[in-house]
């Protein structure tokens, strides 16, 4: 079934605004004033994907930071949704294992955030169940970008 990804992103922002504001993090969306972008997929499960990615961006983001979500049209009837933060970033050595269940980057003591290490495993599982792809790019100390593709409807 199809749904409006613009509307879904705005809903997730509404749900996470409080959490972000506690760290003085601003959530921005490049399509805030755009009309709808219809995509195929399971809206509830894709809400979980966006939520997990944005919660991570808040958790591992720095105080007074910014999280940017964007939706870009690709060729072949696809869109790519990106969640970009300017937080602590991830060292290269950890990138290949990030999507494993229970995998967490642990820098002995420096990490005060709790978590089970399941969020990204769930994200990958849902995206791949849609036959789509998930990507990560990160620079340690600078920030991270997680992105995933979806198929455009009509
Ligand atoms: P859970 O999501 O289950 O509560 P978690 O956040 O630790 O726990 P994942 O969401 O799977 O687990 O993320 C795995 C690890 O990847 C995190 O522990 C963190 O070290 C790293 N990570 C994930 N997202 C980011 C990000 N945006 N910036 C920096 N590190 C990140
Ligand atoms: Mg998480």
UniProtKB/TrEMBL annotation:
Residues in Histidine kinase domain copies: 1-154
Alphabetical GO biological process terms: cellular response to phosphate starvation
Keywords: Kinase, Membrane, Phosphoprotein, Transferase, Transmembrane, Transmembrane helix, Two-component regulatory system
Cellular compartments per GO CC: plasma membrane
An example molecular function term from Gene Ontology annotations: phosphorelay sensor kinase activity
Coiled-coil ranges per UniProt: none
Protein's name according to its UniProt entry: histidine kinase
Organism: Patiriisocius marinus
Organism taxonomic ancestry: Bacteria, Pseudomonadati, Bacteroidota, Flavobacteriia, Flavobacteriales
Gene from which the chain derives: phoR
């Amino acid at each position: 079934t199809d749904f409006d990804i613009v509307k879904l992103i705005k809903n997730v922002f509404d749900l996470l605004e409080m959490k972000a504001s506690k760290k003085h993090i601003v959530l921005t969306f490049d399509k805030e004033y755009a009309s709808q972008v219809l995509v195929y997929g399971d809206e509830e499960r894709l809400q979980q994907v966006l939520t997990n990615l944005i919660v991570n961006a808040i958790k591992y983001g720095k105080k007074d930071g910014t999280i940017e979500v964007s939706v870009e049209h690709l060729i072949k009837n696809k869109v790519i949704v990106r969640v970009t933060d300017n937080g602590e970033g991830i060292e290269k050595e950890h990138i290949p294992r990030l999507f494993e269940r229970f995998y967490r980057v642990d820098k002995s003591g420096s990490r005060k955030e709790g978590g089970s290490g399941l969020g990204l495993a769930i994200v990958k599982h849902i995206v791949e169940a849609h036959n789509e792809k998930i990507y990560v790019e990160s620079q340690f100390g600078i920030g991270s970008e997680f992105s995933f593709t979806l198929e455009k409807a009509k």
